Amino acid sequence: MKQTHFDAIVVGAGFGGIYELHKLLQLGLSVRVIDAAGDVGGTWYWNRYPGAMSDTESYIYRYSWDKEDLINYHWKEHYLKQPEVLAYLEHVVDQYNLRQHMQFNTELEHAHYDETNNVWVVECSTGESFTTRYLITALGLLSKTNYPNIPGIGSFQGEMYHTGKWPREHDFNGKRVGIIGNGSTGVQVITAIAKDVRQLICFQRTPQYSVPSGDGPVTKEYRDAINGRYEEIWSQVRNSAVAFGFEESTTPAMSVSAEEREKKFEEAWQRGNGFRFMFWTFSDLTVNEQANEEACKFVRKKISQTVKDPEKARKLTPHDFYARRPLCDAGYYEQFNRPNVDIVSLKENPIERISEKGVAMSDGTQYDLDVLIFATGFDAVDGNYTRVAIKGRNGESLKEHWDRKDGPTSYLGVCLPGFSNLFMITGPNSPFTNIPPTLETQVEFIADTIARAEERSKGKAQATNGAAESTVSDDSGPVVEALETAEDEWTDLCKKLSDNSLFKKTDSWIFGANVPGKKHTVMFYFGGLGAYRRVLSEVIDAGYRGFKPF
């Protein structure tokens, strides 16, 4: 008969879920990974849109725990494209024989905690029901697609896609294409398809500050130099703020001359990478308005120098803070010099409705299209949690818990009071950093916590069995749960850190501003990965401070 009870069930087979499976198997636990997708990859399974790539350099968009694989697995360019990331994750799964523990085309629909038996009951789209002592969600920060609420959205008769669920095959050659959204995804799609389509209309709500990625082939000498420094590289990454492989600046922007600032910005522009431009140049771009404006002026100047049509350049030029997720591109602004590419400012001329033939604007303009692409992002962080019914003790759902807390919360981005033995990978108020090192940090903390709980539980059972007055042991297993006071303290800390940041003064998905009706709230820890890792160590050293005794 098919096994229906496991020590642990992991929901999601992306970067986090794969590593969590590997770690829990090392503990000798029985584990099943379930995923709605047809194979491994998580975000990289679904996001197959043209131009999709990581904005982290290839040599650290990896797992760090297999040094031999770090050295021998090939990466040929500075940035990994979607097929390469997917192939890498498939390689890891096959190398460690993990696929046998995975079940695909299986979506979590309901989960509730059975307090009497200390198990989670997990119900799936396949009709199957599982029980598990530990439930670990690796749902991803950016996975629940967000469609804008535009009248007539279902009436369009052409091809319609969302970048978060892209088809395996598409052909836009010679077609009239409209794209709504120009965040990180939109920038990548626009840059990739502009040269192939007959016409490309970019419907832009908010102009973006984007810098070159610096992508290109790597030399053997460069790769050999990286391979020889991996211990040093990963040590720096784990102890840095944003974990992107460079030393963050400690120099305030206004402490140097205008000439020195210009030189530093230009050097960062030439080297490429959005996070490098924001955090390597100067130390205060995200907290000091005057320093931030200096960076803004530099990028605005680059836009005016690049885009030849003054009207297109005007629409593409941002005037708010440079305080969204820092973007990089492979020639985004240059695409608007093509005669077949145009930009529409939705703040100046909003979309009135989507018609059978295309997009109708408020001023009466009608754009007839063959293809309509939504690069409108995701209901980030908590979106994938609130769309399914996950209920803890007393039947309270995650959504009800977060409504009561006035926004998505957690302790350490990992645990929640009232949800025993539930662990989240990149849950609310996890670090705002490079994802793979953050995932590794949380996966290792979760696995170590489970190992400690298992050890203590066995010790208690042995002590009970050995007692003269009792021959019956409690074999229901350990209960790991965060204290509500700890959740509140962590939430307050995250709010204080975000209050000091210009990110909070800019509408973006980082605070939920991209989803109509969603409360704007802090959803990340802005203290940096190094500080976060120190907090986790302190929690462990203090006997799991912030948790109920287990």
From TrEMBL:
One Pfam family, short name please? Pyr_redox_3
Q: Which domain of life is it from?
A: Eukaryota
Compositional bias, Polar residues, is annotated for: 462-474
Which InterPro entries does the entry link to?
FAD-binding_Monooxygenases, FAD/NAD-bd_sf
Keywords recorded for this protein, A-Z: FAD, Flavoprotein, Monooxygenase, NADP, Oxidoreductase
Task: Please give the residue ranges the record annotates as the region Disordered.
Answer: 456-476
GO MF entries: monooxygenase activity
Cite the PANTHER family for this sequence: DUAL-FUNCTIONAL MONOOXYGENASE_METHYLTRANSFERASE PSOF, L-ORNITHINE N(5)-MONOOXYGENASE-RELATED
Name the record gives this protein: Cyclohexanone monooxygenase
